[in-house]
Amino acid sequence: MALMITDECINCDVCEPECPNGAIYQGEEIYEIDPNKCTECVGHFDEPQCQQVCPVDCIPLDPKREETKDQLMAKFLKLTGKA
């Protein structure tokens, strides 16, 4: 699954630079995650880095974007040009 940022986000800006895929960006009110770029850090790290640094724990899995680890790895390979 891709991750999402909930409206509990406090715009602290610690998650954006941690995303190796550049999936996190400043939205109109809070940070948002582009689900087409989010691999949950599969291919880069063992755990999603944004979740690790978020001080308010507002980055859950997006239930509307179910993806297997294989699908996330395929997305990683496509995004990095390693496919």
Record keyword descriptors for this entry:
globular, alpha+beta, two-stranded antiparallel sheet, 83 residues, 2 strands, 2 helices, Alpha-Beta Plaits
If you had to describe this structure to a student in words, what would you say it looks like?
It holds the Pfam family Fer4_7. Residues 1-29, 31-64 form the 4Fe-4S ferredoxin-type domain. By secondary structure, this protein is an alpha+beta fold. The protein is 20% helix and 7% strand. The chain has a single domain, classed as Alpha-Beta Plaits. The chain has two helices and two strands. It is globular, with a radius of gyration of 12 Å. The model has no long low-confidence stretch (mean pLDDT 96).
Low-confidence stretches: none
Helix count, DSSP H or I runs of 4 or more residues:
2
State the helical fraction: 10-25%
Instruction: Give me the secondary-structure category.
Output: alpha+beta
Percentage of residues in DSSP E strands: 5-15%
Question: SSE layout and pairings?
Answer:
Elements: E1 24-26, E2 31-33, H1 49-53, H2 69-80
Antiparallel strand pairs: 1-2
Quick structural summary:
Keywords: 4Fe-4S, Electron transport, Iron, Iron-sulfur, Metal-binding, Repeat, Transport. The protein is α+β, with helices and mostly antiparallel strands.
